[in-house]
Structure formats: C-alpha cells, structure tokens
Amino acid sequence: MIVRMRRIAESGPQVAYQATDLARHHRAVIDAARSGQALLRDKDGTALVLAPAADIERTYEIAELALGLIRARQAVDREVGQRSAGLYGDLAWLSVLPDEVQRRCLDELTEALLVASSGISLRPVELLLGDWRATAEAWADLDTREALEAEETAPLVDVEL
Amino acid sequence: MPTPPGRHAAPRGTVGPLTVRPASARAQKEWEQARAAEPELMSALGERLRLRPLDRSDNPNRTHQLRPPLAEKVVGAKRLPQWQHEVSSGGRVFYCPDRADRIVWVIRVELAHPKETE
Questions:
Q1: Is the ipTM of this complex over 0.95?
Q2: What 3-state DSSP class applies to A154?
Q3: What is the pTM of this model?
C-alpha cells in the first residue's frame, strides 16, 4: 500500500492541483480523478490523491489478501507441532487440511492473486478461495469426508430424485 | 421433425435439463429426509441441479468446485469432479456432474452442517 501510494504520488498525474482548485476548477479535478487519479497539494505540501472508490477498494482487497497469504505461509513454514489455527489469521480453516494440501492451496491462491493484481477482476481469486474453504470444511467433518472419498461403484442408475 | 436449413441439430445429450440421481442408497435416503423436512428448499435445489449445476453467479458465491484431495470422485466407471452447493447457511449438498451423460450424481445432503470451519 505504501509503495502504491508512493507510486501514485511520483509517477501518476502530470498536473498537481492546489487546494484552491477544488473550488475554482472542480470539474478538471473531478475529471482527472474519474480518469484514474487527481493529485492535490495542500498548502503545507502534503500530497493527496482523489481516485475512483472502486480502485481504492480493489487495492485494499489485494493488500488484505496478500497479507493473509503471507501470514498463512509463515504458519505453514513452521514445524507441524509449532502451528496453531490462530497463526493462519483469516485462513484459519486451512489448518485442518493435510500439510502438502495446505501448501498447494497457498501456491494456487498466490498465483491467482498475482494474475488478478495485474489488472483483471478479483472474482477468480474469490471463487478459488471459496472452493478451498468448502474443501476444508468438508474435509474437517469425518462423515462428510468419508462419503466424498468413497468410490460409488454401483450408483443408483434407475432412481431419479 | 427435420432440422431447418441453415441450422444444425444440437448434438444428442447436450441440451435440456440434467437428470438428478443418487450415487448411493445413503444419498437417496438423505435427499428424501431433507425433502420431507424442507420441501420448498429441496424443490428449488432439485431445479437448480437439473438446470444449472455449475452456475457460480451467486454473489456471494454459494457453489464451489472442491479442490484436492476431494476434487474428484469415482461414480460407476467414471472419475468425476466433485462440487458443493450451499443450500442454506448450514446446509450443504455435494454432487458430481457428468456433463457427457447429462446426470448429476448426488453424493451427500446435509441440511444442518455440524462443523463449519468458520
């Protein structure tokens, strides 16, 4: 987030608006913000950025997901006996899965987040997260796990539900 | 009825609703118990599985494709992908869609999930 904000301030807009432009040239400021970002300099030199809320939310979402993945990765990198579900943060559900599956999950989520953060929708990451969470939930329930792992060699081909 | 000129007949078995079948006697029993307890909910679920078992357009998403080690299941002679739909906040149905044979195999029905990993 800090890096991104620095990037906005350093390489973003060519024009740095003044606080007084909010009154005098508000349309230009708004148009610049709508097209990506508008840089404002307050009287004391503080840089402020006006940008579409969706862009800011997306940046926060990516940062939050990335931090969650880092936290979970740190947990997985510990010895099995030194882990607790709390160390996984928001991904605590991951701790119920076998060790190698946890690593696979984190690899897949990291890859999906890297792709999404390059500019496409975060929806694929959200779907993948939901898929893994559902898998962990099913895995944690022994009856469900047994039912899902069993081979149904004689399914009821004549019964319709 | 012949296909009108300029139009191609759809390949057999690729259109229309799917058939929902139990993959086991246990799944059949669970489905029937759930239908007795929640007839409207199960009717809507049956409709959904017949018409759009892979639809993930709900927001928030309630349909999930399970990942390994639960990603696939053997049903009959086939290895099929395994999916889950959140019927309600605590209810789950697990199923394996067989798109080639137009069948949705129901694996397990739980109306009240006992151990959510929240």
A1: no
A2: coil
A3: 0.84
